[in-house]
Amino acid sequence: MRSQHRVFATLTCAALLALTGIVLMSSGAAQSVSEQPEMTFWHPPGPHVMGTPRGPAPFPYDAARWHPIHFQPAISQATNAQCLACHQEVVAQRVRSVTPAGLRTEDTLAWYQTLEVYEGEQETFHRRHLVTPMATELMNLQCTTCHQGNDPREEASGGAADTQEGLILRKHVDPNICLMCHGKFDYEVMNLPGPWHQHAEMFGNSCTGCHAAFRTTRHDVNFLKAEAIEAAGERSADSCYGCHGGRSWYRIAYPYPRNAWPGMPEAVPEWARERPTESQERFRTHSESTPTAGATAGSQ
Description:
Elements: H1 2-35, E1 39-40, E2 59-60, H2 61-65, H3 80-87, H4 89-92, H5 125-130, H6 133-138, H7 143-146, H8 175-182, H9 196-199, H10 208-211, H11 226-235, H12 237-246
Antiparallel strand pairs: 1-2
Helix pairs in contact: 11-12
């Protein structure tokens, strides 16, 4: 009987200790959460988040990470203001004035500063694409031009039945978006003797000398300012070359859509047979020209 009482007493003590531990852990966890800065605020309300609190109701980082605005279809409707409400650092932070090795930024040149078309001091990646004078003059990039969603768990499509389709393996941005403005100069397709920087003088250092007559339907996408680009191209070929080989990150060229232009020949070059006939739907301005009588169905 005594042994049974001892077992019962031992089990009772263990249960009480376990319960005490749970309570302590709960209070400690609550305290640690309150002390951690991993709290953020709800994204500004929009058509994709109707019904979310409009006040400064804080919620944990993971709740923000899995917020619908980071996935399709909500992300396709997100505005820059909504993105920058939580990601302001991408445009607020500037490059260091002095490197860790002691080299002053003002005494160095970044590769993009060597181009005639670029003016100003060194800037961070996102600032160069969103807020610098060149970016605001020639481009109309939105956060969602590049960022179309990401699965933090799988980082790929097909991991689950409800995984967003079209994700690029372990990349937050489809490299083809970068390739549009950072591909190599495709001189073979243009029937030029070699790279532009080697033969520009042969053409008077002008792109519009030839492109005034063909491929005249161009830059008509919602992330570029077509008229401003044409004007800049008239002033300097570097404005054209900057996005067509001058700032190449890749060894391949982007297969631009072959939009029909007035007087476009009916014959389709071999290299153009597999080219798309218009830009991706999400990039269209709805003013892209339709094929003319002299253009066949697959000739853009």
